[in-house]
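re: ur msg from earlier - yeah i can do the nicotinamide-adenine-dinucleotide complex, just paste it... oh wait u already did. ok heres what im feeding in:
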Amino acid sequence: MKLEDQVALVTGAGSGIGRAIALALSVEGARVAVNDLIDESAEAVVKEIRAAGGFAMAVPADVADGRAVLKMFTRFLSEWDRVDVVVNNAGALFLEPHVVTNMQAQAAERAAGGPVRTPLEATRTIEDGVWRRTFAIHVDGTFHCTREALKVMEVRRSGRIINMASIAGIGGLAGSPDYSAAKAAVIGFTKAVAREVAHLGIRVNAIAPGFVDTPLLADLPASVRAAILAQTPCGRLGTVEEIAAAALFLADDRSDFMTGQVLSPNGGYSM
Ligand SMILES: NC(=O)c1ccc[n+]([C@@H]2O[C@H](COP(=O)([O-])OP(=O)(O)OC[C@H]3O[C@@H](n4cnc5c(N)ncnc54)[C@H](O)[C@@H]3O)[C@@H](O)[C@H]2O)c1
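and the outut:
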């Protein structure tokens, strides 16, 4: 097993990609601290891991809250005394209903051969609270967990941090200015920290998935999904297992020569 005796923290691991990563790390022998905003979701994944013979602990917390993150680290470190892998995966996509309606109208206009006349009205209508919450979860959350992880990893002179970005942070996603900006910030943060700590034996990389079949995309209407598939050369959504495989690769020693990189499993959506 590639991660025997190691300890991993996965944030937002109660669902979708994070859950798949937590399970994959556990199969490779890691003890997994399962974080989520929703207690029951974290507990359910812990049960799943234990049922399969692995070791896991639920550490629910809002990663946007720096003090809650400090408490979460104190809690699992007091029992396991180390952290080797941190996956900053917690995330949310807030799509206003009128933006979704406008996306549908645009998809219909494109399907009819264009031109696209409907404005999305995303950037000029987004509320301050939504903008800030998106940044708080993705950017502040990634920063809070990285800060706590480095306190341990710098002393041990070893560690791997994996930040969940998105193709939205590379190419931009119309309708999600907050999400795209936050994911771009995660990529910049990844590279800065990678440069800072490489000489201490700590690697920091990002994953920028394309569209993956999870509850995050639940609000997307069928016509918008069809438009996404039409722009994805592989012609399908990604699976959570495919993203977990990328995370596992960045978590173990096969990727020892990689730091500050953005790995993008996206079915060819972005090249
Ligand atoms: N699904 C996709 O198409 C896709 C594509 C690119 C990137 N991503 C990114 O992958 C990550 C996982 O997304 P997913 O698709 O599995 O979504 P998901 O909704 O299935 O899971 C996200 C999890 O994060 C948790 N969470 C949200 N805010 C949190 C907070 N403040 N603190 C702790 N936990 C919190 C949620 O409760 C949920 O369990 C996110 O960062 C997302 O932006 C997803």
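cool cool. The chain has nine helices and seven strands. ping me if u need the other ligands too
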